[in-house]
């Protein structure tokens, strides 16, 4: 039986909250009866909507976190996608933090988190990607606290990581992406500067032609473009073009990022044309835009924008 939210003195928004959660519970029940993943997706979306509408200290935080932990774990059992298990872990952490130790549900929360942790260790997802579960939740719900915690987890992992560890470059790459996301959200140029330095280190130390090296080149190009747009240093734009051209040249034609890298270069050449007025840059921008469009599948959500 689904746990219900308290009703005493409920304000109108609390009634809306209760309706949302009850609908989510109904959808989850339908999923359990039919195994139709669409019901589960809708149930999760509604539960996430509910939890983002309350404060972290709301008395129903633990209940909602438990619901989401259960739903995401059910989704993992259906899909075997580690992303779903990571999300279950995040909500299990939230649940245990919000549940008073003298509550009978605390033991259930402890048992659940231990089970999920064992599953995570067997998939090794948290070993490879510290903080990525919180980062994924940030991307879903937009809570900056999740992004900050993800960055802290990543920094701690790097402190404990030997410079020669094979996973170090991958961890650095994810860390730089997180910092860029925080820059885009909060506008602190220091985050962008740090992310650029990290990507430069990856480019220097990773194996040329390897996927991490190529991704770092592309990420660095994007960061330098953002810094150019922010502070106007033309040298940043020049380097952005150089790194992105190198990334594109090393990207296989059938790679899903191939079209996006053409598109990025088009933006960069267009920016350089606007800065110095060289018609050749405008022609290159058009050429790369056409290439990006040609490489974009007809049903891709970015196709209209590339037109």
TrEMBL record:
<protein>
    <recommendedName>
        <fullName>TPR-like protein</fullName>
    </recommendedName>
</protein>
<dbReference type="Pfam" id="PF13374">
    <property type="entry name" value="TPR_10"/>
</dbReference>
């Amino acid at each position: 039986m689904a746990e219900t939210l308290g009703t005493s003195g409920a304000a109108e928004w609390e009634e809306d909250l209760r309706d949302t959660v009850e609908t989510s519970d109904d959808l989850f029940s339908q999923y359990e009866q039919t195994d139709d993943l669409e019901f589960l997706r809708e149930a999760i979306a509604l539960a996430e909507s509910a939890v983002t509408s309350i404060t972290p200290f709301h008395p129903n935080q633990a209940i909602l976190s438990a619901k989401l932990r259960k739903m995401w774990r059910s989704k993992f059992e259906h899909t075997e996608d580690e992303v779903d298990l990571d999300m279950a872990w995040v909500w299990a952490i939230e649940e245990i933090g919000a549940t008073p130790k003298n509550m009978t549900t605390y033991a259930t929360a402890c048992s659940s988190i231990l089970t999920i942790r064992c599953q995570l260790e067997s998939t090794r997802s948290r070993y490879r990607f510290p903080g990525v579960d919180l980062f994924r939740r940030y991307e879903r719900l937009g809570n900056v606290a999740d992004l900050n915690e993800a960055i802290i987890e990543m920094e701690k992992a790097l402190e404990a990581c030997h410079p020669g560890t094979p996973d170090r470059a991958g961890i650095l790459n994810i860390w730089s992406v997180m910092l860029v996301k925080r820059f885009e959200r909060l506008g602190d140029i220091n985050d962008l500067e740090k992310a650029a330095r990290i990507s430069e280190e990856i480019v220097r130390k990773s194996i040329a032609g390897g996927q991490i090296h190529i991704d770092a080149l592309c990420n660095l190009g994007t960061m330098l473009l953002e810094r150019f747009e922010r502070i106007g240093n033309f040298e940043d734009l020049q380097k952005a073009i150089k790194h992105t051209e190198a990334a594109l040249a090393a990207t296989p034609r059938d790679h899903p990022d191939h079209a996006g890298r053409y598109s990025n270069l088009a933006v960069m050449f267009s920016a350089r044309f606007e800065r110095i007025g060289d018609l050749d840059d405008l022609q290159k921008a058009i050429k790369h835009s056409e290439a990006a469009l040609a490489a974009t599948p007809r049903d891709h959500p970015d196709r209209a924008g590339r037109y």
